[in-house]
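This follows on from our talk about sequence and fold. Go ahead and set the record down below:
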Amino acid sequence: MMYYLHFVGMWIVVRSQAARQSLEKNITERGSLMQTLIVVYKDKDEMCVNQLRKLIETNDDRDGVITGVEDGSVQIVPWTEKVWLQNKEAGTIKSKVLLIGGIKGVEHLWPIVDIKYDKHGVRYGWAGSQAVLKVDEKALGSNDAYEDFLAELRSKASNAVANDKRKLGWNKKSVGKGIGAVLAPYVWPAFVASLIKDGFHDSRIVRQQMLLLGVSELYTNHLDQFMKG
C-alpha cells in the first residue's frame, strides 16, 4: 500500500504509514528551516541512499565551519524509480532531485548536465533542480585503475563497503569462462561455483564502491552548491 503526504506543493508517496508519520514529524519540527532532497534510486543502489542520508544527518560542522551542508538544513526523501515516475507524470515536483544510476529517462538529461565530477568512472552533475550520478564499472577494468580508485575511496570513506575488495580482477570473465569450459569436467564442482560466486560479488561490490565515492564527493564538495542553486 502507498501513503500520500502533501508538502510544498507536491504529493509525496511513501511506502508505509510509519514512513509517512516520520516525514510529517520532521516537517513539523524543522519544516521551514529544511530543504528537501528527493533521491531516486533502483533497489540495488539503496546502500548509496543510506550512505548519503548518513552523511547529511551527521552533525559534522565545527566552530562555524560547515562540512558538506549545514547541519539540519537538508532532509532526504528516498523514492524508488516507480514512485519517481508516478510523481513526475503528475508534474508537481518542486524540490531538488538526485537521480542515481540508470533511472528511466535520465539519458535525456545528461546532454545538458553541468559536470562537477568525472573520475574513476564516477560522474555527476546537475541541470537546474535535477542532479544525476552514474558509474561505469568498465573504467576500473585494469588492476592498476582499480587500486588507484580504492586508494582514493578509502581516503574519503571507512566502512565495510570501502574496505571490501573484488576477488577475480581484470580478466575475471575470460578466466572464469575458460576454466569452466576447459576444466569443469575434471575439477570439483565447488571450484566452478566459487568462480561464479566471486564474479557476482565483484560486480556488486565494485558498483557499490563507485557509488560510495560519488556520494562522498558530492556531499563534501558540491551538495551545498546544488541545494542553494
